[in-house]
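Repro:
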Amino acid sequence: MDKIAAMRSFIEVANCGSFTKAAEHLDLSRLQVSRHIQEIEQWLSLRLLHRTTRSVSLTLQGEEALQYCQRVLSEVAAMESRAHSHNTELVGSIRIATPVGLGQHSLFDVVDRFIKLHPKVNIQLLMSDSFAQLVDERVDVALRYTEQPDENLIARKLMSIDAVLCAAPSYLTQAEPLTVPNDLLSHNCLIHSSQQHWQLLKEQQSELIKPMGNMMANEMGVLVSAALRGHGIAYLPCDLANPYLASGQLQEVLPEYTAPGQTLWAVYLSRSYQQALVRAFIDFTAQQWQQDLSKWTASS
């Protein structure tokens, strides 16, 4: 019995809820996966899965065994990663899901450097501001803005990213003056579909504004373009806004107020954690972004 292979099959079945999907993800036959599950259940003398014609779910003993198996494979992955870093060039493919704006700007620079260092690595980018389904879309690692990562995933915090209210000079010169957050109610706001309210802080006092405007989008790049063309005020992450603020194409609005940002996480399934390539890419990304914190923070 190959206990490592059996544990990998067990974890994949638990993640997918399906023997067929697990087999596809592991590039094994369904029979091989089924045999692995039988072997690990015989080895532990436990029933790990409830099986019906329509679904597969963990037993109570299976939930406990899953945690142990994940820990074991994490340690195996750490050992393999350390060995590969000394002895072997990184080779393989990695599938990354990312918000569109992040993928087009900051992440693309990281991918470019990573591929130059590791030319035998293939990277697939899935760009969407909606959360990717890691199992169904076969994602190895997803970058997500969230304050509470999914507890069913392994998560690593990458960055805290400030936000800023800004608009083009062409908009501000013809618009009503802005001195307090409530003044935003008389302005055209460019709204991301995930931000129904804008929070502004000053001297530990918080104000919550419901922005109103004639444009809403589910992708930050669209809002950046609209702001640059003078359509209104946008609430943007600093990694997107800072280059335009530095060039004068955008100007900060209500600079005496702080616009709370978001936390960026790398999230992945336990099976992805087994890959030295996934670990190496996450480590490299975190290191690259930590080298220039001004990119992610507000200047005021």
